[in-house]
Write the structure tokens for this entry.
Amino acid sequence: MNNYLLAEILSRHRDNIEPYFYLGRAKWENGLIKKIKAQEVAQTPDFADERVWTFLIAYGYALYGEEGIKKLTKLLTNSDQIKQICPRIWLECMPLPPRKGERNTSIDLALGTISRREPTKSGIQLDDFKNPWVCFCEMKYNSDISAGTTNDSQRNQLLRVIENALFFRSSDSERYADKVFVTLVTPEMFRYANVKSRLYQKYKEYKNDPSTIISDLHKCSQKPNWPSPDIKRIDSLCLNWITYEELFANLPYPEETLYSGFFLKLRRFWENYGPHKLG
């Protein structure tokens, strides 16, 4: 196994993780795996592809099944959550839009009481489950949060993800999740930077004063598909910020298991091309 490229090992273990891992819009072999293989061959120092890094994180935790998802859930929500019947990590999947005339938002990574929204391939919905919860993650590797969205220049990208999480539901129900987590994931250099030049700082405003979320939602130009938001709905929301470094550091790195070759290759890939290479 040590002679294989990381890209080849990822393909070999695909069947093992698919019960715990769902890839929505992104393509497997002709997309993510192809990019990883190209990077292993080219070995360029700059590899700021957040889709690939998100995929590798999700893959590493999904490879350990329910225990891996449980560990990732605690890292992303900062707490233990009720166990799902069929736990999965959802990548690049789309909830129903919360605004009229708006296209679906692609959520980088999602966890929770979630099921696929039939008959779509990438659509997701809130599962019919007691005490439902959801965690939507906005993954930013070397790009900033967008100040506006396609149809609304006043609605920043983080606000859009928060709104999608707060009003995440199934296609035939108006029930929302009891607990809602939105987690921003960036490299450490942006999480603890002294220079506050990026729109990531909007996270701190929302974290410190949730009423600003309600205020910003009311300023959006498109009409909502949900009742007018109030502070009671915001009470279900918890915002978190974690780094790619923390997620990789907490991956299980077993010395002797079926997957030890994968984790050794993944660790090397991370050490060679991770965010410490960013300028």
Summary: Residues 28-42 form the longest helix (15 residues). The mean pLDDT is 87. The two ends are 33 Å apart (CA to CA). The first strand starts at residue 21 and ends at 23.
